[in-house]
Write a structure and sequence with these properties.
Layout (H helix, E strand, L loop, with lengths): L5 E4 L6 E4 L3 E6 L2 E6 L11 E2 L5 E5 L2 E3 L13 E3 L19 E6 L2 E5 L5 E6 L8 E5 L2 E6 L2 E7 L2 E2 L3 E2 L3 E7 L2 E6 L4 E3 L5 E2 L5 E7 L2 E6 L2 E6 L9 E2 L7 E5 L2 E5 L3 E4 L8 E3 L7 E7 L2 E6 L4 E6 L1
Antiparallel strand pairs: 1-31, 2-3, 3-4, 4-5, 6-9, 7-8, 9-10, 10-11, 12-13, 13-14, 14-15, 14-16, 17-18, 18-19, 19-20, 21-22, 22-23, 23-24, 25-26, 26-27, 27-28, 29-30, 30-31
Length: 303
């Protein structure tokens, strides 16, 4: 490895993980562990018991507001989230945990407190639900089948949004960017964009753009206007994971590549020395948490 990567052992291989930028939650087999973004345990070694989650998402108490004028830098002020749950910290009352945490299990969406303990649960729809929760821009959406619903309060959703043939999806506040298995178009923005390929990997919103991993690099679309931007070459693609850590884009499958669009720096490759592929990649503030598929461990990569 060519950077100071920290390895921490987990009590079990994490099945799902999420971060609000300061805190990281890792869960598997109905247990939850809580850490700081740099890897310090916050739960005293006691794993909270909860339903076995199939996905997990978190948002901070406040989020950066994007610039109001195209082409200008994001503003440094913050705005409240759409909903704010008073934190129920319990044994973690002295910790810096804040924000909203949600997961999916047993066909339902579960709202969780900062320890990971259940607060509320609600069915996504009247039929079976095998979807996931996704976060971005201070909002969490539940996405399943060909439909999505925004989480508006503990136990409550917004109106459903139909996504015919849903393939990949990325959240940007109250907006959903998505692709369909039926064609090569990107939808959800001010205009449809033809990506001209069905071979697509991860996608995320970062530094004012939507990024989609494709063969040979990254397709980039303005998150403001929906206009395609310059194609960015990266060492591998499509890759399953793309995340945004404080305006720095990171992605990969076994190793990681890192790109800082705001600084105009070249793509940097971080070799993790893994034999197996990554099972999860999570952005946590100025860190990336990468979870190997073959061991109960997390690699914490500083950016």
């Amino acid at each position: 490895m060519d950077v100071a990567v920290t390895r921490i052992d987990l009590p079990w291989p994490a099945r799902v993980a999420a971060s609000d930028g300061t805190t990281v939650w890792c869960s598997a087999a109905g247990r939850m562990r809580v850490y700081t973004a740099s890897g310090t345990p916050l739960d005293g070694g006691e794993a909270v018991r909860l339903p076995e989650l199939s996905s997990l998402a978190a948002v901070p108490g406040t989020v950066p507001r994007t610039a109001g004028v195209p082409g200008t830098l994001p503003e440094t002020v913050v705005v409240p989230r759409t909903f704010a749950v008073p934190p129920h910290l319990g044994s973690l009352s002295g910790s810096p945990l804040r924000g909203t945490l949600a997961g999916t299990a047993d066909g339902r969406v579960h709202w969780l407190d900062p320890t990971g303990a259940p607060l509320a649960a609600a069915p996504f729809s009247t039929g079976p639900f095998d979807g996931r929760v996704l976060a971005g821009g201070g909002e969490i959406w539940a996405v399943g089948g060909e439909r999505a619903r925004r989480l508006t309060a503990p136990g409550a959703f917004g109106e459903p949004v139909e996504l015919p043939g849903l393939d990949q999806c990325a959240v940007e506040g109250e907006r959903l960017w998505w692709t369909s298995k039926r064609d090569t178009c990107l939808r959800g923005g001010p205009r449809e964009v033809d990506l001209w390929t069905r071979e697509r990997g991860g996608m995320t919103v970062c530094a004012g753009s939507l990024w989609i991993s494709v063969a040979g690099g990254l397709e980039r679309v303005s998150a403001w206007s929906g206009e395609p931007r310059r194609f960015v070459k990266v060492p591998k693609g499509p890759v399953p994971f793309l995340v945004c850590a404080n305006g720095v884009l990171a992605g990969g499958e076994r190793d990681l590549f890192v790109l800082d669009p705001g600084a105009g720096a070249a793509v940097r490759v971080i070799r993790l020395g893994l034999q197996a592929r990554l099972a999860l990649v999570v952005a946590a503030g100025k860190h990336i948490w990468a979870f190997p598929a073959d061991r109960p461990q997390a690699l914490i990569v500083p950016l």
